[in-house]
Specification:
By secondary structure, the protein is α/β, with parallel strands linked by helices. It contains ten helices and nine strands. The protein folds into two domains: about 5-80 and about 195-225, Periplasmic binding protein-like II (D-Maltodextrin-Binding Protein, domain 2); about 80-185, Periplasmic binding protein-like II (D-Maltodextrin-Binding Protein, domain 2, 3-Layer(aba) Sandwich). It has helices at about 15-25, 40-45, 60-65, 100-110, 120-135, 135-140, 150-160, 170-175, 205-215, 220-225; strands at about 5-10, 30-35, 55, 75-90, 110-115, 145, 165-170, 180-185, 190-200.
Length: about 230
């Protein structure tokens, strides 16, 4: 089956999956591609990986536009995603209202599941937060780092640790069976990231890519975006 090709941050994977059948009905095309750390996805586009559409942080899409990898007339914001905490579905939720609460919660965990701490939006933020809290060295051996948040959350769901916790984009938590959104990060440690879509300048399916962007950002689908973890 012919498909449009996507390079996207993991934050948008659940929302894109919800729209795949509608896109196919409207264009006859499926969706193929990769969802992962935004920095790696941007580098793949720069390196020549075929793509019709990208969904990355606004900052990265703007940079790719300036580098002439994304059509400037196609760029539209999809919504804001917060970085949040996750626990297994049957574990007690962890509520953190202050930095001290967050430090205690992370110290109490015997495994901390996170995405790539060098290339993913949430993973980079986790690394900075651990430094800010002064516990980076203390919990280093308990970090369970995976290429993207979706993989990290699936591994959290399957974990046999006694007190595991996860931290990644809220959208990736919501889209993963077996775990639940435990709560937001506290003031001073929160992260809210705008995700933005654009058509690649070397797109083979420009019209279908624009249709997908319309589906992602349509006002009539604001409730779907909210349920999948997007706001704004």
């Amino acid at each position: 089956m012919t498909a449009i090709h996507i390079l996207s941050g993991g934050a948008a994977q659940g929302l894109v999956a919800q729209l795949a059948e509608t896109l196919k009905a409207q264009t006859g095309l499926g969706i193929e591609g990769e969802f992962g750390a935004v920095g790696l996805m941007a580098d793949k586009l720069r390196g020549g990986t075929p793509a019709d559409i990208v969904i990355l942080t606004r900052a990265l899409v703007t940079k790719l536009r300036d580098e002439e990898f994304v059509d400037p007339t196609s760029i539209v914001d999809v919504g804001v995603v917060e970085t949040a905490l996750a626990v297994r579905a049957n574990d007690p939720k962890v509520t953190v209202k202050t930095g001290s609460d967050l430090r205690d919660a992370l110290r109490a965990a015997d495994a901390i599941f996170v995405p790539d701490i060098k290339a993913s939006t949430a993973g980079i933020h986790v690394a900075k937060t651990l430094d800010r809290l002064g516990i980076a060295d203390e919990v280093a051996s308990r970090l369970r780092i995976f290429p993207n948040g979706a993989t990290a959350m699936r591994q959290l769901a399957a974990s046999d640790a006694k007190r595991p916790i996860g931290c990644t984009q809220a959208t990736e938590i919501i889209a993963t069976e077996g775990i639940v959104l435990s709560g937001s990060l506290p003031p001073g440690h929160e992260l809210a990231t705008m995700y933005t879509a654009g058509v690649a300048t070397r797109a083979a399916h420009v019209t279908a890519a624009r249709v997908l962007i319309e589906l992602l950002t349509d006002a009539d689908r604001s409730e779907l975006r909210r349920r999948m973890g997007f706001s704004g």
